Amino acid sequence: MIKTLLTGTAAAALLATTALAEEVRVYNWSDYIDEALLAKFEEETGIKLIYDVFDSNELLETKMLAGGSGYDVVVPTGTFLQRQITAGAFQKLDPAKLPNLKNMWDVVAKRTEQYDPENAYSINYMWGTTGIGANVGKVKEILGEDAPIDSLELVMNPDNMSKLADCGVHFLDAPAEMLPMAMKYLGLNPDSHEDEDIAKAEEALLAIRPYIQKFHSSEYIQALANGDICVAVGWSGDILQARDRAVEAENGVEIAFNAPKEGAQMWFDQMAIPVDAPNVDGAHKFLNFIMDAENMAVASNYVYYANGNKASQEFLIEDVMGDPAIYPSAETLDNLFTTTPYAPKVQRVVTRAWTKIKSGI
Amino acid sequence: MRRFAMIAVPYTWLVALFLIPFLIVFKISLSDAALAIPPYAPTMKDGFTALIQGLDFENFVFLTTDDLYYKAYLSSLKIALISTVLTLLVGYPIAYSMARAPEEWRATLMMLVILPFWTSFLIRVYAWIGILSNEGLLNQLLMWLGVISEPLTILNTNIAVYIGIVYTYLPFMILPIYAALDRMDDSLIEAAEDLGCSRMSAFWLVTVPLSKNGIIAGCFLVFIPALGEFVIPSLLGGSGTLMIGKVLFEEFFNNRDWPVASAVAVILLLILIVPIVLFQRNQQKQAEAEG
Amino acid sequence: MAKPSPDTSIKEFSPWTDPDEKPLIRFKNVTKRFGDFVAIDDLTLDIYTREFFALLGPSGCGKTTMMRMLAGFETVTEGTIELAGQDIAAVPPNQRAVNMMFQSYALFPHLSVYENIAFGLRRDKLPKDKIDARVTEMLKLVRLEKFARRKPHQISGGQRQRVALARSLAKGPKLLLLDEPLGALDKKLRQDTQFELMDIQETTGTTFVIVTHDQEEAMTVASRVAVMDEGRIIQVATPGGIYEGPNSVYVADFIGDVNIITGKAKAAGPDKYFVDWGGNQAPILATSERPFTDGQECHLAIRPEKISITKEKPEEAENAVQGKVLDIAYLGNLSTYHVELPGGQIIKAQTANTRRLSRRNITWEDPVWIRWNATAGVLLAE
User: Fold this and answer.
1) Residue B179 in this model has a pLDDT that exceeds 60
2) CB C123 to CB B210 under 8 A?
3) What is the ipTM of this complex?
4) A61 neighbourhood in chain B, CB within 8 Å
5) Band of residue B117 on the pLDDT scale cut at 50, 70, 90
6) What is the Cα–Cα distance from B23 to B20, expressed in whole angstroms?
């Protein structure tokens, strides 16, 4: 009798304590936040934060479509968000719980409506471009003073690539980024879903395939910073982070980011709440926290990405706000293109082409 | 009644943990991809008749149209076979030395063989990345010794995959061979020598044939899982390393095409049935011969 | 005992007595150590061609080690072993003209009976027809023609033993070593096989060296027996010599049943001694070619069958003692009476049961007389 009573009390106490320790689970891109913010969130709200990272939209989408991911907040890129909304993977946000929505930047909000009509399901976290990261010193050594580090010629022209191969070139392991870039290089519509155009892009990429050391969506940051590779096609903020790391390490490596002048892809990373999120309330608290002007600025200052939060701009450092690579001028903005999501049959063609490019099969 | 209950337990296990999941995968392989949760249709929610009507073998037909798939199966077979042979060549001498070791050392040696399993498989594979990469331990050692002047590119090639598979599956090869050698009567070797065999020919004429069962068991235990391996080719292999496990992963994650991925899995299972049945028969024959 | 071969029917087979005869095997001061343990201690022995030689002794006496040294599976720590006059220390087992029949038979389980027997012949790279002829001959010798295609696990224990024997004889070795070959067989089969072995040894003319702990077996098959203990040979002699003329209490006790009476010797005439064995018993009269000094401790070893037992006091007897029947061991054909003497010793007397059990006249608790002749026993110094 006493034994059962004791166990019962112990169990109840345990349950009570676990209920008190509220949790919010966030699934975000790697190298995409200042860790200090995570600690700050936990302190301010008393909610335990479980923070996981990924580096591939496809991976996230699979988890979303499988259902039951267990996350409260996820961060898909716009085109993928659009598909996942169609599949019913997210729930509408409750504006009443998000007073900081007023901080958001309407210029960006307009663009993201393309993916999320009326921005009902998501808020913008950060946005950026896909461009070329170059180890300036090494590239100029190999290709000369006027090496085209701001042009697609650097990475798509076999003549240049063959010379850069030994030094090391990484491309993103993301067909949705690389195929449009190849199409732009060929003068085609980068958002083309035509089999023909995809085939041409495939050909162009196959031509330079022998010179690409690796396809990876996150390794290039450290590799560039260390001087292990000379060129990477990657995301703007990531490459700028690499630049920063090299400077900190004082290893003499100078990294430059350039959105290709022919045109670069612009993308938006949105934060959304899965339809089966365990802690919807906590999710909203997190989103509101992120949308706070100062908090968002801390994040951008750390990862060198532009964000969709107007109010945060006064807190951004000069390095970020004043860098046209991060906050492009109006005319550059005109040169940036966005893409639309692939239908399943097109997706299959794209993935098959990508497999051919990567492995030759 | 009691006998029935005893048989029922393993059968329930098999049905619940193998047959039912397999049927689910098979059903998905007969469905079509859809942008929904879950990403295929039709599902149970559509009702039973709609479910049956919506199923077809379209995905299996598709697998025959794209050469990626049969090439991946063949490549997997090739890699699995080569890995099995390599594991045998490495594992047999180790098992042999263990069987010849003084009695008091055997338990320790056995422990050493099994010890790696106590650590995470994933971490051990990652460790190989650190060893085999261009700046890794192996290249550093070879360059320091002066054997090479340029680092060898081993990581992200098929060679790294072979190393990874041999390393991971070595205990599965060692243990059955060791058991067979341990069982062997030492006086048989003396008898062979007495009748005119040199050490070497005694080994080939007596020891190897008598450890045949262990060799076969070890080979199957390596070949069957190696065929469907995914983690090792994914982490250690290059993008040119084509294995069916990776293809399945890509169908699943990159294409978000669960039905085709399921079809790939079903075919893989059918391919594996042949070696599995052979292995079963071999084990049965061995049990009969001994009993 | 080995039957004298027809060629030497004039004299018994005893090459060890012939000074011109060269031994096939010669152990010269052989010592074998395993670490600190001395398995063979300064052993010297000659074994002659066509002998059926038995190494007899308890577990751990070193007999198996000796055999393994002959086969080549153990090396000699000190001393030399010569086979046909040549030092075989450098010759590996697969090159010696010696074959062994293992205690566990060591048949190759993955080969058929035919292939097992052919194994050694194949190693010599003989032509196919010669191998076939020889294997067939061997199969006939051990009467297993019908089982040629079977595998070892498909034949009985006795048949496996015959395969092992055939295999070991197939190469016609100069020397065949048998390591406790009959241990696994039941008594009847064992006896039959013993005679078979002797026949085969004679027919093939091979020298056999058998290791056994069964003294009956050694006595049955061997031309000479070496009794061993703790790495040393205590006595080498023909079975008769061992039995009737043991050189020590150890040997006397090891073979067959024996009574040992300990006492002090006193001269009683040429080759005759009195043994004073204590109490108020009359001293025993015993003949001995071995000399004893007066007062030297000696042991009289006398076999139970040499002792007669009667209810009445014997009229004439060189040695006669009175006692009480303590126990009777009935062995069917014989009975061994355990007689307790007044001094407390127990003497065993054995007689054939010439009469049916129910009509036996001596029974438990009976007072009886036992007697024996002066020549019946052997007087030993140790």
Assistant:
1) yes
2) no
3) 0.80
4) 256
5) confident
6) 5
Per-residue pLDDT band for A153 (boundaries 50, 70, 90) equals very high
The whole-angstrom separation of Cα A353 and Cα B73 is: 19
Tokens representing C32 are: 């074998």
In chain B, which residues touch A (CB < 8 A)? 33-39, 66-68, 71-72, 135, 156, 238-242, 250, 252-257
pLDDT digits (tens, 9 = 90+) for B233-248: 988 987 778 899 988 8
Interface check A86 vs B, CB under 8 A: yes
Question: pLDDT (tens digit, 9 = 90+) per residue, C96-106?
Answer: 889 999 989 99
Among C222, C251, C280, give the residue marking a domain's end: C251
Q: Which residues pair with C176 in a beta bridge?
A: C99, C208
Interface test with B, best of C34, C64, C68, C100 (most B CBs within 10 A): C100
Dihedral of CA B74/B76/B77/B81: which sign?
Answer: positive
The yes-or-no reply on C/B contact (3 CB pairs or more, < 8 Å) is yes
Query: What residues make up the domain containing C349?
Result: 257-380
Q: Can you give the CATH number for the domain in which C263 is found?
A: 2.40.50.100
With respect to residue A11, please indicate whether it lies within any of the assigned structural domains.
no
Closest to A242 in 3D by CA, of A299, A304, A178: A304
For residue B35, the model assigns a pLDDT of 77
pLDDT at residue C358, as a whole number = 67
Of A215, A347, A361, the CB nearest to B255: A347
Q: How far apart are alpha carbons C321 and C280 in whole angstroms? A: 11
> Could you give all domains of chain B from N- to C-terminal order, each with its CATH number?
1-65 (no CATH), 67-290 (1.10.3720.10)
pLDDT given at position C292 = 85
The CATH number given to whatever domain includes residue A208 is: 3.40.190.10
Residues A192, A296 within the same domain = no
Per DSSP, the three-state class of C225 is strand
Q: What is the DSSP letter of A317?
A: -
Considering only alpha carbons, which residue of chain C is nearest residue B212? C110
Q: Looking at beta carbons, which residues of chain C come within 8 Å of B197?
A: 94, 123
Q: How close is the nearest chain A Cα to the Cα of B197, in Å?
A: 52
Is A12 within a domain? Answer: no
CA torsion sign for A79, A84, A85, A89 is negative
What pLDDT sits at residue C8? 46
- Asked whether residue C209 falls in the same domain as residue C84, the answer is yes
pLDDT of residue C9: 44
